Amino acid sequence: MARNTLSRSLHDVGLAAWFGGTLANAVALNPASGEAGSARATGAVANAGWNRWTPVNAAAIGAHLIGSVGQLQANKQRVAEQQGVKVMSTVKTALTAAALGVTAYSRLLGKVVDQGGATPSKRATRPSKRARGEVAAAQLRLDQLQWVVPAITGALVVVSSYAGEQQRPSEVLRGVTVKPATV
After folding, report:
1. Which of 7, 61, 142, 143 has the fewest CB atoms below 10 angstroms from its CB?
2. Cα separations (Å) of 146 from 4, 10, 57?
3. What are the residue ranges spanned by the domains of the chain?
4. What are phi and psi of 172, to 5 degrees?
5. What pTM does this model have?
6. What share of the chain is helix, strand, coil (3-state, %, to 5)?
C-alpha cells in the first residue's frame, strides 16, 4: 500500500485551519471587535479581521478539498469493498458540501457588511440601531451562522477520525471479509 502523506496532510491541515479559524473568529474576533472604542471602529475592526482571514480560509478549504480528492482516489478500493467505508465517505461528502455552502453564503453576507464600510456595530455580528437595513440584516444572519461552519467542520474532524479508525488492519480485514446479512 502506497503512502498518501501529501494528500492526508492537505486534507487534515486544511480542515484544521477551516475549523479553527472560523471557531476563533466566532469566539474571539466577533466579540472582541465590540471593544474597539466606538460603534464605527467596531465595524472597521471586524471587516479588517474577516478580510484578512478570507484568503487564508480559501487556501485552507482548497487544501482540504485537494487532500480529500487525493484520499478518495487512494482509498477507492476500500470505499468499494470495505463495509462501512462508502457510508462514511458519503457522510463526509455531505458535510463538506454543507460546510462549503454555509461558508460561501457567510462570505456573501460578509461582503454586504464590508461594502457598508465601517458600519456602526455593537460587535461584528450585532448591528447598532444606526446600521443600514441591508447591512444590519446581513449582520444578524451572520450572527446566526457564525457557529454553523465550526459545527459542521468540527463534525468533519470527528468523521475523519472515524475514517482513520476504519483503516486499522483489523478493521479493514473485518470490513472486507464480513458481508452484511441478506434477508
Report:
1. 143
2. 33, 24, 14
3. 5-166
4. -65, -50
5. 0.85
6. 80, 5, 20
- Chain Cα centroid distance, residue 17: 8
Separation CA 38–CA 25 (nearest Å): 20
Q: What counts of helices (H) and strands (E) characterise the chain?
A: 8, 2
| Predicted pLDDT of residue 178 | 58
Residue type present at position 126: R
Compute the distance between CA of residue 144 and CA of residue 103 in angstroms, rounded to an integer. Answer: 13
Question: Which one-letter DSSP state was computed for residue 179?
Answer: P
DSSP state of 181: P
Largest CA distance in the chain: 68
pLDDT at 102 over 90: yes
Residue 33 grid cell: 471587535
The span from the CA of 14 to the CA of 71, in Å, is: 13
For residue 39, give the nearest of 121, 114, 113 by alpha carbon. 121
By mean pLDDT, which of 32-36, 101-105, 138-142, 175-179 is the weakest? Answer: 175-179
Question: What is the per-residue pLDDT for 42?
Answer: 83
Please check the confidence at residue 133 and state whether its pLDDT lies above 70.
Answer: yes
To which residue does cell 449582520 refer? 139
Mean pLDDT over 92-110 rounds to 96
Residue for grid cell 447591512: 135
Which residue in the block uniquely carries the three cell numbers 475523519?
160
